[in-house]
Amino acid sequence: MDMERDHLIVLLVILVTLLMEINSQSATTVAVPSTSLAFGSNATSNNANTSFLPTTTEPFILVQDPTQTPLDAQANIPENIDLAVCVCDLTQDVCDVNCCCDENCSPSDRVVFLSCDDEYLTKETNTDLCSYDIRVYGNNNVMLKAVKNSYIFCISNDRNPSRKYYASVAVARNQSEFESYLASSQSNRFSYQYKPTVLEPTNETNYYKRGQFLITLSNNRVSTLDIPTSVAATSSCVKMNPAKFLISEEDSCTRNLVAPLEVVCTTSADLNSEKLRQNLQNVKVKMRPGSNTNLAVNVSVVDVDVKGDTQFPTYSPQLGLCIGIVKEVAYTVTHEAGVIMGVEANIVITDLPGTLTAVEQKYSVQYVEAGDSSIPYRRSGNPGYLVGEPVIAGKRVGDYIRLNGDRQQYLSMVVASADGDCLTDSLNRQSIVFGEGFRSGCTLRLTKDNLGDQCSNQFGDQCSSLNAYVIQSLLGPSRALDTTEPIYIAMFGNSLPSKVGDWIELEIVSNEISEQTVGVSLHLDIIYVNVGSLANPQAMIVAAKLYLEPISMSFSCVGPYCHRQNIDKTQNFEVVSSVAFIDNSLPAEAAIAEKPVAKSKLKADFFKPYYVASSSSQFFLSHVILCFIFISYLIG
Amino acid sequence: MVLRSYGLASQTEVQRLWWLSLLPYQIVLYLNGFYTLFYTICELLMFIYKGETLPYAPSSLGVEIVILLLTSFVEILRLFFGKKGNLTERPLLVGVSLGLSLPAVLGNVFLLIWQTYLLRAELILIIVQLSFIGVEMLLGFIAIILFSRATPY
């Protein structure tokens, strides 16, 4: 019995000690004593401040001590410290209003404080610990208050306090440190880098490939041959467009001037043809991307309609013109098997009125194979017409079709200028290209002079020559659509001029053009069909018809128009021309499949006891009825 | 003193007049078995909580969990040997149990002092566990002394 009692006593002791342990533990968690610290106004409390918050003074010392360099200051940032001790103290050596932690504030200053701004600007960091100090703002003072956290999962022992603080980093003082920072940064950046991959020639690139930038040396600097282009929104010239090998480009862009042309006529580097010529003569183009053999640019200045002497450019006040302005720069690159054999630059200059503030320029680059001066005949499709390629048309001369040398002028229509006038010269006419219907109207301004002698002598007469003039305007001065000779249109894009059978005659429907009527409307219908495979349809022109619609109109001789003195008075006639492409392809025939038939897979004797293929259906039916009666009996 | 006999016991056992096994030791060991299960499950749940809410240095969370599991394993062995040693009155087995107390204490002290974040709930759990171990060590010593004195050399 003594032994058992002893055991019981020992057990009791154990339980009591256990309970005491738990009680002491809970006592520590429950007790929340709070202490407060006042600091701010006098010298002793300042000391208390620094002693209780030893780290808070360091940033201030760093800022205020002029002997310390910023480099030292960066190195001395203490780790795992909340530096935001007094973020509202913004004015040095002066008390900030409502900033209770500002040491410069005297008690008399604090009297006027309405509240403490500090609490809005600093946040407590250690709230997940079981016990921590918080800053308490009251009585226009900052106090530290110990807080016990009653949360059961609060952190009792924190051996990783750095989790709440930024890692202290060193200042990057050289390029490699900068790069390492850049590499480790998580944020996305816009790439501003221009990657000059082509500008670094290697030995491997002995030949220019299609699309590769032409590499130039200007004043021993590796660069590219820039072809200015227009920006879509503003159409002003942008220089960053290197010439790309075997990619011909042509673009017009606008140079917006800082002052009227008469002021910047000679100074603008973009407009001054002489400066441009000198610049281009300094440019050398690398024959191969990797080689050191360079070619000088062959510069020639072409003047189209320049009035004045050879001293370009100048501003002529009496003419009001800026003479010798760069209108067009055309580069022609001669190449052979990926090696550049020569570069020519044609600078076309012109005269422009001095009042302009914007000049339109045209830049182009084209690539020509060396030793091949003849322009090859270019098809409009092989065999079917391609959309956007000119419709081939010509006149029949004997056993072959004679084509215009300029493929854009096979068939063309008159278009309007910006002010609505008909552009009757051949260069400005709109080429008729396959698949692109269009309609254009324009105004013909006619004087009596335009109508020739026959008409000018007979005032008031209705002139037949007016009709001829209008038709000529519509059909073009080159008379590609001359109605006097039959016009042949190629059925296919690759029709040979020597095979006349491949060409169809353009049917011209003109109502009676009498002396009272003038054909002011021209309409061309081109009917095509797709032939060949559905996957690769080939367009073939099967019919073309030209309508000339005459209306009754006259050169009116009313009032002042009838006077000889007013012979240059103009009258306006509106003319319309249009082209339509009509797809008359025969659709593929729809083949409808047969309806599927359900095929019985059951054996003939599947319903053996009730229904045998050879037996009569009545026998089977009787069994079904019997079954039905039986089932209804069961249910009923 | 109650003298009991049971037929299956050996001749020498039957002649003994009393048993030396300590009942308090056995009770504490028995209760500690349940507590260890509770402690291990709670600790694992709290590691999950800490791993979700707090940042850890690489691999430190894994190391701490492994140490907890090892401690629990040692604890099971320690309790097993303690129980068997107490029932069979063999000082060697109780000694093994006492020897295993050292790594068990070490593991608990690690979790108490050296783990990255110690939650208050963990603190309570570990203190209780350490108290169990302390009491069992005390009783284990008493048991060894009693068993050794009774063992004929």
TrEMBL record, chain A:
Domain of life where this protein originates: Eukaryota
Keywords: Cilium biogenesis/degradation, Glycoprotein, Signal
Ranges annotated as spanning the membrane: none
Residue ranges the record marks as coiled coil: none
Domain Tectonic-1-3: 207-368, 380-549
Domain Tectonic-1-3 N-terminal: 82-173
Signal peptide (UniProt feature, chain positions): 1-24
One GO biological process term: cilium assembly
Similarity-based family: Belongs to the tectonic family.
Full protein name: TCTN1
Annotated organism of origin: Bugula neritina (Brown bryozoan)
Lineage: Eukaryota, Metazoa, Spiralia, Lophotrochozoa, Bryozoa
TrEMBL record, chain B:
Tagged with keyword Magnesium: no
Native organism taxonomy: Eukaryota, Metazoa, Spiralia, Lophotrochozoa, Bryozoa
Assigned keywords, A-Z: Membrane, Transmembrane, Transmembrane helix
GO cellular component: ciliary transition zone; membrane
InterPro entries to which the protein is assigned, alphabetical: Uncharacterised_TM-17
Source domain of life: Eukaryota
Keyword Phosphoprotein: no
Membrane spanning residue stretches: 27-49, 61-81, 93-117, 123-147
PANTHER family found in the cross-reference section: GEO07735P1-RELATED, GEO07735P1-RELATED-RELATED
Pfam families, sorted: Transmemb_17
Name of the protein this chain belongs to: TMEM216
Subcellular location: Membrane
Biological process annotations from GO: non-motile cilium assembly
Organism of provenance: Bugula neritina (Brown bryozoan)
